[in-house]
Design goal:
By secondary structure, the chain is α/β, with parallel strands linked by helices. It is built from 35 helices and 20 strands. The model has no long low-confidence stretch (mean pLDDT about 95). It binds thiamine diphosphate (TPP) and magnesium ion (MG).
Length: about 900
């Protein structure tokens, strides 16, 4: 201790003069820092951490609330001294990258010259090119690497860059490149964005609806672990990479599931957020710093964060900055201001960034060119390599790399770092020449005007290098390759027990579907491939027996004795558990559904997901993920349970689903069924497995099931098994013909789901009280019937001279006499859409309007889908057809107790 300090310490601090106090503080701090230096030198960094932690907890014990800081200094996380040597040929890689930049830009410019307004993006890839190229040349391992192969979620708007690389790799032709965004051209052009549906051999993951790629990548990495832990896929070092826009982090799907990754310790997951500080309209966080904000969020969520903020040219200045002035300047610099330096170049940086004598001194030796070299870290391959290398080696946590880049890098006056750059798709010849000069490309003025694409000669060092790197890393990216073999579907007989009735025992269709799953889980071939997915709703659906039977997946097993361990059906977590119990996240569950339902393509494993959820929280809440599932060619069963607006009693407006079947209509490769009975479910599930896994069709299924218990009648006897099967799958079959053969008045009643019971009751009343013979049809799928009718209509229109065909529904009714009336627990529009394809008009009853808390009987009365309303609708239809007097209908209405001025469920 110094003498000064000794003397000062003896005094009461409150008595000190300000200069004395300042001196005391200064000396005291120095003492502490020197002690720390000593510990670092003698005990190393781990000892320093221990001491600081002990100090922190000591201070907390004294009631000192330490300030919380989740971010670190605004400098690169990896110090220059810790950067590994670059393993590649930087010069060659630069030439390759620049050529890809060119081809990517040229394809967008060309497309818009040919067809103004066709769209495309230059600026996104321009900012991310070096990030990707370091990945392509050194990290992304291809399919030949087997369990060490990587999966990469590419940022959708950067798609021109991946096409441009595939072009250099000779995987795409000039014609395909020229037809970017012209998928109906010949030869077929390239998809705007990553779409496995449209380019099934190229793209694996649709990412362009912002936020979906990020959440899908988390559950993909987790699912990969699940496959490994369950012994379905060999353990390996393969990573899941996701490239994400900084603006994209505004989407709740992007950040909403990040703790799932840290909880599961997914060190097979690497995110690269391209922080070009801009989104479509302007800066992402102009008045702050998106990189620091994201760092805080990810560190707080248990991720390993690597910042790649500054390029190598800054290293010298940071080293020279002994006072911390430069770092303080980095930390006060808001993104909107720093965008100016990127947009206006070195002079702007020189004037506005180095704005104090201290900072000016730091760069006093700089020439103007030196300022231009002060690059952002995301454009520096050495820095990027260091980050990727650290990320892939990191253990126990997922890693996010926050790479600072310039949006529209290299576009110069055509848009670099401009607010309009995202949508810039036209460069004039001067701008293209400037681009060429900036990236030193061997392209002539003449080429710029004619075919703008450039490919390296086959025996050029660039061509050899890029192909060798990919061969070494195990094949190309992106590439989608289905290697799974077909698997024979379970025999129809496996489900025989569902074809016979349940007698007096009342069973809900939810119970039926759970029993079907339990049956499959015991099957030798299929048992291990079933992936039950539940968002915290297993008890609602009566699935808790499965907890014990097959276990809930947890990578760490069960570290506690569950509270219900004495119970036969206790809550069992295990590292080879089969159930994905996702907690309350339909979005996360859907991401798991997609991972499990596309494992046939990504891992060659035929896992088959059954995702059971509250039907109300499916299509309307996570509809975009269902659309992404369709695009991804996902297979599996979506099971909307507790379905039906009037069947889910008590829960009210927010829970009662009467429209998910309408929302299922738009998804082209989705088959949707609203079955009434166990035998129908058994037929649909068996056929689904056959089509998806035996025939390898890229389709998936939506089934609604309900929680109303009623006796299951079994397969009707008047149909052969083949006839029944065809009817159920095509969408309708005659379930119960009328027994009243002599009746003059006739009707055909359609029932679906639980409303089938109302229809059967109406059949009885019509016959007993009104002399109407009604046949009852079970309509299992309005979507299937409608689709078939549209296809038939189209076929007839395109072949006008041929004998017209009739749709399946029309043919089914060809011999059936009488008026047509349909009733379901879904909106009327389903049946109305089919009606014009039938031989006669059809009246639709359904559940349009808001649900409400009530008992089933009252709800069905309110929504006018109970037996009495079906009877009234039938009699009214007969009157409309001139077969009955209006007075008779009026009398019936009163006899049935229906009030004419009752509330309208649509408006009430
Ligand atoms: C869900 C969704 N909303 C909006 C868009 C339209 N959109 C496309 S790109 C973009 C801006 C992207 O900014 P950022 O994520 O920062 O990516 P960058 O291009 O800057 O790398 C927007 C709003 C979209 N594709 N998806
Ligand atoms: Mg951005």
């Amino acid at each position: 201790m110094t003498d000064v300090l000794d003397q000062l310490l003896d005094l009461d601090r409150s008595q000190l003069e300000p200069t004395e106090l300042h001196e005391l503080n200064r000396v005291e701090l120095r003492e502490w820092l020197e002690s720390l230096d000593y510990v670092l030198a003698s005990g190393g960094p781990d000892r320093v951490k221990e001491i600081i932690e002990a100090l922190e907890s000591h201070a907390e014990r004294h009631g000192i609330a330490l300030p919380f800081q989740s971010d670190t200094s605004y400098i690169n996380t990896i110090a220059p001294a810790d950067e590994p040597p670059y393993p590649g040929d930087l010069e060659l890689e630069k030439r390759i990258t620049n050529m890809i930049r060119w081809n990517a830009m040229a394809m967008v410019v060309h497309a818009n010259k040919e067809s103004p307004g066709i769209g495309g993006h230059i600026a996104t890839y321009a900012s991310a090119a070096t990030l990707y190229e370091v990945g392509f040349n050194h990290f992304f391992r291809g399919r030949e690497r087997g369990p060490d192969a990587d999966l990469v979620y590419f940022q959708g708007h950067a798609s021109p860059g991946f096409y441009a690389r595939a072009y250099l790799e000779n995987r795409l032709s000039d014609e395909q490149m020229l037809n970017f965004r012209r998928e109906l051209a010949d030869p077929r052009g390239l998809s705007s964005y990553p779409h496995p549906w449209l380019m099934p051999e190229f793209w694996s993951f649709p990412t362009v609806s912002m936020g979906l790629g990020p959440i899908l990548s988390i559950y993909q990495a987790r699912f990969r672990r699940y496959l490994e832990d369950r012994g379905l896929y060999q353990k390996g070092d393969g990573k899941v990479w996701a490239f994400i826009g900084d603006g994209e982090t505004d989407e709740p799907e992007t950040l909403g599931a990040i703790r799932v990754a840290s909880r599961a310790k997914l060190d097979n997951l690497v995110w690269v957020i391209n922080c070009n500080l801009q989104r479509l309209d302007g800066p992402v966080f102009g008045n702050g710093q998106i990189i620091q904000e994201l760092e805080g969020i990810f560190r707080g969520s248990g991720w390993n964060v690597i910042k790649v903020a500054w390029g190598s040219a800054w290293d010298e200045l940071i080293k020279k900055d002994t006072t911390g002035a430069l770092i303080r300047r980095f930390e006060e610099l808001v993104d909107g201001e720093s965008q100016r330096y990127a947009a206006f170049g070195g002079p702007e940086l020189k004037e506005r960034f180095f704005n104090t004598p201290e900072l000016k001194e730091l760069v006093s030796h700089f020439s103007d060119a030196d300022f231009n070299r002060l690059n952002r870290g995301g454009h520096d391959p050495v820095k990027i390599y260091a980050a990727f290398s650290a990320a892939t080696k990191h253990q126990g946590q997922p890693t996010v790399i926050l790479a600072r880049t310039v949006k529209g890098y290299g576009m110069g006056s055509a848009g670099e770092a401009q607010n309009v750059t995202h949508q810039q798709k036209k460069l004039d010849e001067d701008e293209m020449r400037a681009f060429r000069d900036r990236f030193e490309l061997p392209i002539t003025d003449e080429q710029i005007v004619t075919n703008p694409f450039y490919r390296f000669d086959a025996d050029s060092p660039e061509n050899k290098y890029l192909l060798e790197r990919r061969a070494e890393l195990g094949g190309f990216h992106p590439e989608r390759r289905v290697t799974a073999e077909p698997v024979e579907a379970p025999a129809v007989e496996l489900f025989d027990e569902f074809m016979t009735g349940s007698g007096d025992r009342a069973v809900s269709t939810t119970m039926v579907v759970v029993n079907l799953m339990r049956k499959l889980l015991r099957d030798e071939t299929w048992g291990k491939l079933i992936v039950p997915i539940i968002p915290d709703e297993a008890r609602t659906f009566g699935m808790e027996a499965l907890f014990r039977q097959i276990g809930i997946y947890s990578p760490v097993g069960q570290l506690y004795e569950p509270v219900d361990s004495a119970n036969l059906l206790y809550y069992k977590e295990s590292s080879d558990g089969q159930i994905l119990e996702e907690g309350i996240t339909e979005a996360g569950s859907m991401a798991s559904f997609i991972a499990a339902g596309t494992a046939y393509a990504n891992y060659g494993v035929n896992t088959i997901p059954f995702f059971l959820y509250y039907s109300m929280f499916g299509f309307q809440r996570i509809g975009d993920l269902i659309w992404a599932a369709a695009d991804s060619r996902t297979k599996g069963f979506l099971i909307g349970a507790t379905a039906g607006r009037t069947t889910l009693a008590g829960e009210g407006l927010q829970h009662q689903d009467g429209h998910s079947h309408v929302l299922a209509q738009p998804v082209p490769n989705l088959l949707a069924y609203d079955p009434a009975f166990a035998h129908e479910l058994a037929i649909i599930v068996q056929e689904g497995m056959r089509r998806m896994y035996q025939e390898q069709e890229d389709i998936f299924y939506y089934l609604t099931v309900a929680n109303e218990n009623y006796p299951q009648p079994g397969a009707p006897e008047h149909l052969s098994r083949d006839e029944l099967r065809a009817g159920v799958l095509n969408g309708m079959y005659l379930f119960r013909p009328s027994g009243a053969t002599g009746a003059k008045l006739r009707a055909q009643l359609f029932g679906s789901g639980t409303i089938m019971n109302s229809v059967l009751e109406a059949q009885r009343i019509l016959e007993a009280d009104y002399g109407v013979a009604a046949d009852v049809w079970s309509v299992t799928s309005y979507k299937a019937l409608h689709r078939d009718a549209l296809m038939t209509e189209r076929r007839n229109r395109l072949n006008p001279a041929e004998e017209p065909e009739r749709a399946y529904a029309y043919r089914a009714l060809a011999e059936a006499e009488g008026v047509l009336v349909s009733a379901s627990d879904y909106m009327k529009i389903q049946a109305d859409a089919l009606a014009r394809h039938l031989p006669r008009p059809m009246v639709a009853l359904g559940t349009d309007g808001f649900g409400r808390s009530e008992a089933r009987e009252e709800l069905r009365d309110f929504f006018e889908v109970d037996a009495k309303h079906i009877v009234l609708a039938t009699l009214h239809a007969l009157a409309q057809d001139g077969q009955l007097e209006a007075a008779a209908v009026l009398a019936a209405r009163d006899a049935l107790g229906i009030e004419p001025d009752k509330a309208d469920p649509y408006t009430d």
